[in-house]
Amino acid sequence: MGQEDMISAAEDVADQFLRVTKQYLPHLARLCLISTFLEDGIRMWFQWSEQRDYIEGTWSCGYFLATCFVLLNLIGQIGGCVLVLSRTFVQYACFGLFGIIALQTVAYSILWDVKFLMRNLALGGGLLLLLAESRSEGKSMFAGVPSMGESSPKQYMQLGGRVLLVLMFMTLLHFDSNFFSILQDMVGMALIILVAIGFKTKLAALTLVVWLLAINVYFNAFWTVAAYKPMHDFLKYDFFQTTSVIGGLLLVVALGPGGVSMDEKKKEW
After folding, report:
1. Of 7, 123, 153, 188, which one's alpha carbon is 20 to 30 angstroms from that of 57?
2. How far, in Å, are 3, 65, 78, 101 from residue 72 at the CA level?
């Protein structure tokens, strides 16, 4: 079996998977995508004092402002998750969660940590895809009205979402000299590029979902670490952030790459 035959067979498997999961995949994608915000909002409730004291000590902003910060994060994240899952005011929920990401990036000094910054940008990419999906649902309400084609903003949201999502995988590349690491980096880089440019997008995104899921369960198994240890919270944070990026990739699989992609251009050739 040649390389093209293998790719064709893999695409057939991916298409079969999509046909079977078509009704459930978008719901699973949204749940995965908002999981990190839901977990962080709940953590704000259970670690209220610790989070408030950290912000107050780091920024010397006083008790009141530190309390407002924690409250805003709690209400903003849980409220946004409820709106996304209930499919009401999704665009406003996405903008609110974008604001939470920006606020936390500054408050927790993530701006100066390249790895965490790239992961936060990947989260933003997932939200862009969610925003694009909500625009698509809004258009479907007017199914009988003639259309000039796919809306340009939605196309570029999907492009931006894809490009930002792959930043998560840039933090997983090792660049070690041993054969296994080199092979993993080469395969990972190839899949990343395919998703970013929108070529064989669904197959590449689905492969990345499987890869990232395996890495997440193996390396971020927070349930194996005692809850009182700092490593438990660190692994839990990583686990749910990674799960959110998996949700974004599942949206790519469910919705396709959008108009600004090689897959779409191929149809015109």
Report:
1. 123
2. 52, 10, 10, 12
Q: What is the pLDDT of residues 239-254, one digit of tens each?
A: 999 899 899 999 999 8
Cα separation values, 188 from 8, 95, 204, 267, Å:
20, 31, 10, 26
Residue pair 153/240 in contact by the 8 Å Cβ criterion: no
The DSSP output letter for 28 is H
**Predicted confidence band of residue 127 (pLDDT cuts 50, 70, 90):** very high
Residue 62 — pLDDT band, cuts 50, 70, 90? Answer: very high
Are 210 and 87 a contacting pair, CB within 8 Å?
A: no
Distances (CA, A) of 76 to 30, 96, 126, 196: 17, 7, 17, 30
Predicted TM-score (pTM) of this structure: 0.86
CB 105 within 8 A of CB 127: no
Mean pLDDT of 174-199: 82
DSSP string over 103-159 = HHHHHTTGGG-HHHHHHHHHHHHHHHHHHHHHHHHHHHTTTTS---SS-HHHHHHHH
Q: How far apart are CA 42 and CA 64, in angstroms?
A: 20
Alpha-carbon distance of 267 to 269, in angstroms, equals 6
